[in-house]
Write a structure and sequence with these properties.
Helix content: 25-40%
Oligomer: single chain
Strand order of the largest sheet: 3-5-9-7-8
Structural class: alpha+beta
Radius of gyration: 31 Å
Distance between the termini: 58 Å
Strand content: 15-25%
C-alpha cells in the first residue's frame, strides 16, 4: 500500500478570516502505525470456513469474492444431496429421519454463513464501484474550464459522497485496506476543492466591491438574483439545516433536489384532529413538522414592507407561518398583507395534502419587498410536498394489529402474543374490532429532513369503505403518526364489493428499477382498486406506476390471496405465488406413496381424503385450468414488471374451490415480522406424525432466513380469509431517503423542474 505524508493549508473566507486547516496528502511518506495493522477480514473468513463440512476442500486463504463463490458452490452440491424429500417408505424409523434432518440443517447453516459473507462482500464491491463513479464525476468538475464557486462546491460534495461510499465498506471486509488507502487519497482531493471554492468566493467578493457587473460574472457563490441582498431560501440540499449552502438551486424543484415540506397530518396536541387543519403551530413537536424558510435582508431592505405570494392560488394546499417572539403567526400568501417587520424573517411551511391528480405538490413561494407602494426587490423558492410511501411485507415491524374476536380466535391471538414477544415488536389487540384488520387501512410512511438527519414518520391511509370499523385507522392518529383519506366510498356490485379494501393494495420490496418498491393491486375486468387511490399512487411517483393483477377468478378478489413477498438470505426478495398445479401434484405424491386414505383439510368444513379429492375430476380440472389460464400468464407478466428471475419465484401448493375460495388455508396469505413468518396451518395429511404439506412448505422456504410459524386460523379460513387478511402492521421506513434512491423509471420527473403552468 502506498501511504502519504501531509501538509496543511489554511482556508480563508471572503473577508480574510481563518476558517480552518485542511491537511493535504503528499506521496512517499511513512504510513501511520495504526493503519499498518493487518485487517482481520481474512481471519473472520477462515473462521467461518472452519465450520464447514470436513469432506469439502477449502483453500487456506480466502481473499476474493470468486473464491467465496467456489466455496458456496461446493456447499450447494452438498446441500442438494441432503435436501431431498425423504422417501417415507424407506425412512421408517424416527431416528433415521432426524439424522437426515440434522445433516440438512448443519449443511444449510454452513451454506448460509458463507452466503452471508458473500452478501457483505458484494455490498462492499458495490460501494467501491459507486465511489469510483462519483470520483470520476468529481475529477471532471475539477477539470472544467473557468470553474467557479458553484463548480467547486459541486466537486466538494462529490468528493464527500465518494468518501462516504467508501466508509460503507465494513471493517472486516476483504476490501478494507484498499478502501482506507483510497479514502486518504480522496481526502486530499477534497481539500483542494475546498481551497479552490474559497478562492472563487474571494474573487467574487472582490469583484462586487469593485462594482463589477455581477450579471456577467460567472463565479457567484449564490444563486443568480435580480435583487442582491434580498434572498428567500429553504433546505434545498435536504440536509436538515437551512444555511448558506441552500442559496443555490432554489428556483427549481424535483424529486431529487429542492426544499421539501411535510403534509402535517399527525396530531401533536392530542385533540384527535390532524395538525394541518387548525391553522396553528402546536408547540415544539409541531414546529419540527414545518419546512423552515428564511428571508435574508440587506440593510437597504430593513424598512421595506415584505409580502408573500404564490404564482397560483394554493391556499387549499399549504399553510405558512411567521416566527415571532410569541410563537408562530399565520401568514397571508395572497400578497396583500405584509409580514411583521423583523431583522431576520423566519417562515414555516406545511402542506395540507399530498400530491394528487389535481395538484402536482409543488408551490412557488415568492417574497416581495415594497417601499412607498413600489416593488424594489423580489425572490422566490420552489417547495414540494414529500410523497407518501407504502411499506412492503419485508420491512421491519414496530406493531402488529389484530382484533380479539373472543373464543373464536383466542388460540390465534395467544400464538401472536408468543411470537411478537421475541421479535421486538408490539402486539396491538383491538377488542371486538373488525375481523379483517388488513382491509381497514394502509400504514405507510413519509421521509423528511430535520435537524441534520432524515426523519421517518408513519402515516395511515384510511380505507375508502363505509362502516364504523374503518374508524380504527383514525384511532392511530397521534404525535408523529399521521392519518389521512383520499376520495370517498363508492357503490360496487355484489361480486366486487370488496375491491376497495386494502388487502387488494400491496407493494413489493425494493426491486431493480424500483428501489422503494412498486405498488400492485387486484383488478377484475373493469373493476379494480378505487381510481382515486390509483391516481393518488401515481401522483406520488416513487412506487409507480402500479401494476394490476387479474383477481377475477377469486371470491374476495384481493391481490394478497395470490402473491406475497418474503426476504431471502441472498439479499433478493422472494415472491410466493399460489400454485393450484403444485397442489394437485402434492395430492398425487401422497396417493402414489400409499397415503390415499390420509385426511386433508383437517378440522375444516372441506375435510376429506387424498383419494376422494383426486376422484373429484371437476375440482382437479378446475385447479389445473386456473394454473394454465391464470397463474402461468401472471408469472410471465410479473417476471417482466417486477424484474424477477426464476429463482426468486416460489410456487406454493394451493387449491381453490369453484367459487374462488382457498380450498385449504392459503399459505401465501402470510405476514413477515422481524425474521418470523406467520403462515396458515394448511391442515395437510399427517404422515408419521408430521404434516406433509407443512414439510413441503418448509422445503420451499429453504432460501429464506425466516422462522416459520404455522397459525391455527380455522376461524378465518371458514370466513374465506387467512393470516394476512386478519392482521395489519406498522413498519419502519427505509434508512435511505427517497431522494437518494430514485431510478431511471422516474427520470423524466427527477431531472426537470416543474412547469409553473402545471402547479395546480
Amino acid at each position: 500500500m502506498r501511504w502519504m505524508r501531509y501538509v496543511k493549508i489554511a482556508l480563508v473566507n471572503t473577508v480574510g478570516a481563518l476558517v480552518g486547516i485542511i491537511w493535504i496528502p503528499v506521496p512517499q511518506a511513512v504510513a501511520q502505525p495504526s493503519l499498518l495493522k493487518q485487517s482481520n477480514s481474512e481471519v473472520s473468513v477462515l473462521e467461518t470456513i472452519k465450520s464447514i463440512n470436513n469432506n469439502i476442500k477449502i483453500p487456506k486463504k480466502v481473499s476474493s469474492l470468486p473464491e467465496l463463490y467456489q466455496i458456496r458452490d461446493k456447499l450447494q452440491v452438498e446441500l442438494d444431496k441432503v435436501s431431498q424429500m425423504p422417501n417415507i417408505q424407506e425412512v421408517r424409523e424416527p431416528w433415521q429421519y432426524q439424522f437426515q434432518v440434522r445433516q440438512y440443517e448443519k449443511t444449510l447453516k454452513d451454506f448460509r454463513r458463507v452466503e452471508a459473507k458473500i452478501i457483505k462482500e458484494e455490498k462492499a464491491a458495490q460501494s467501491w464501484k459507486q465511489a469510483m463513479s462519483i470520483a470520476t464525476n468529481a475529477v471532471a468538475k475539477g477539470k472544467k474550464t473557468g470553474a467557479n464557486y458553484q463548480t467547486w462546491q459541486e466537486a466538494e460534495n462529490l468528493w464527500l459522497d465518494a468518501i462516504d461510499s467508501l466508509r460503507q465498506i465494513p471493517q472486516d471486509s476483504l476490501m478494507t485496506d484498499k478502501a482506507i488507502e483510497k479514502m486518504i487519497e480522496y481526502q486530499g482531493y477534497l481539500a483542494v476543492a475546498c481551497y479552490e471554492k474559497v478562492i472563487a468566493a474571494r474573487k467574487w467578493a472582490e469583484n462586487t466591491e469593485n462594482n463589477t457587473n455581477t450579471q456577467t460574472t460567472n463565479s457567484s457563490p449564490i444563486a443568480y438574483s435580480l435583487s442582491p441582498g434580498f434572498t428567500i431560501y429553504g433546505d434545498t440540499n435536504r440536509d436538515g439545516e437551512v444555511d448558506e449552502a441552500d442559496k443555490s438551486g432554489r428556483e427549481k424543484w424535483s424529486l431529487s433536489e429542492g426544499a421539501l415540506m411535510l403534509f402535517n397530518n399527525d396530531d401533536d396536541n392530542g385533540d384527535l384532529i390532524p395538525d394541518w387543519r387548525d391553522r396553528d403551530v402546536n408547540g415544539e413537536s409541531d414546529t419540527e413538522d414545518l419546512a423552515i424558510v428564511n428571508i435574508q435582508l440587506a440593510e437597504s431592505y430593513r424598512d421595506a414592507q415584505i409580502y408573500i405570494s404564490t404564482d397560483t392560488d394554493v391556499t387549499s394546499y399549504i399553510n405558512v407561518f411567521q416566527k415571532i417572539e410569541s410563537g408562530w403567526q399565520p401568514v397571508d400568501i395572497s400578497g396583500t398583507e405584509a409580514l411583521i417587520p423583523r431583522e431576520k424573517i423566519i417562515l414555516g411551511v406545511e402542506a395540507k395534502q399530498f400530491a394528487d391528480r389535481n395538484w402536482k405538490g409543488v408551490v412557488n413561494l415568492k417574497a416581495i419587498a415594497e417601499k412607498n407602494g413600489r416593488q424594489i426587490a423580489s425572490d422566490s423558492i420552489q417547495i414540494g410536498v414529500v410523497p407518501w410511501l407504502m411499506s412492503p411485507n419485508t420491512a421491519p415491524v414496530k406493531e402488529l394489529h389484530v382484533s380479539d374476536r373472543g373464543l373464536a380466535n383466542q388460540e390465534f391471538i395467544n400464538k401472536i402474543r408468543e411470537i411478537i414477544e421475541k421479535t421486538g415488536a408490539t402486539a396491538k389487540i383491538n377488542p371486538g374490532g373488525t375481523t379483517w384488520m388488513q382491509d381497514t387501512k394502509e400504514i405507510g410512511y413519509v421521509q423528511f429532513p430535520s435537524e441534520g438527519k432524515t426523519r421517518n414518520m408513519n402515516v395511515a391511509l384510511k380505507a375508502n369503505r363505509p362502516g364504523e370499523n374503518d374508524q380504527y385507522s383514525r384511532s392511530l392518529l397521534k404525535e408523529n403518526f399521521g392519518w389521512f383519506e383520499v376520495g370517498k366510498p363508492r357503490q360496487l356490485d355484489p361480486l366486487n364489493r370488496w375491491a376497495d379494501a386494502y388487502g387488494n393494495l400491496e407493494v413489493t420490496p425494493p426491486l431493480p428499477g424500483y428501489p422503494m418498491g412498486r405498488v400492485y393491486y387486484g383488478k377484475a375486468g373493469e373493476v379494480g382498486m378505487n381510481p382515486d387511490i390509483i391516481d393518488f399512487i401515481k401522483a406520488q411517483k416513487i412506487q409507480g406506476p402500479p401494476v394490476d393483477i387479474d383477481t377475477s377468478w377469486l371470491m374476495i378478489r384481493h391481490v394478497d390471496e395470490i402473491i406475497s413477498f418474503i426476504p431471502s438470505k441472498f439479499g433478493k426478495p422472494l415472491m410466493l405465488i399460489v400454485s393450484p398445479e403444485a397442489g394437485v401434484k402434492l395430492l398425487e405424491e401422497l396417493n402414489q406413496q400409499g397415503y390415499g386414505q390420509a385426511a386433508i383439510n383437517r378440522g375444516l368444513s372441506t375435510q376429506t381424503t387424498v383419494r376422494a379429492a383426486l376422484k373429484n375430476p371437476k375440482l382437479i380440472q378446475h385447479n389445473l385450468y386456473l394454473q394454465r389460464e391464470k397463474l402461468n400468464p401472471l408469472i410471465e407478466k410479473l417476471k417482466q414488471e417486477f424484474n424477477l428471475s426464476d429463482d426468486q419465484i416460489i410456487q406454493v401448493p394451493a387449491m381453490f374451490g369453484y367459487s374462488g375460495y382457498s380450498w385449504w388455508p392459503n399459505m401465501v396469505n402470510s405476514v413477515v415480522i422481524n425474521g418470523e413468518l406467520l403462515v396458515s396451518n394448511p391442515g395437510g395429511a399427517l404422515i408419521n406424525g408430521r404434516d406433509y404439506t407443512q414439510e413441503k412448505f418448509r422445503r420451499l422456504m429453504a432460501d429464506s432466513s425466516l422462522n416459520i410459524n404455522f397459525m391455527d386460523d380455522r376461524y378465518y379460513q371458514e370466513l374465506r380469509g387467512s393470516v394476512h387478511d386478519a392482521t395489519n402492521t406498522t413498519r419502519l421506513g427505509k434508512n435511505n431517503p427517497f431522494w437518494e434512491s430514485l431510478s431511471d423509471n422516474i427520470s423524466e420527473f427527477k431531472a426537470q423542474s416543474l412547469d409553473m403552468a402545471d402547479m395546480r
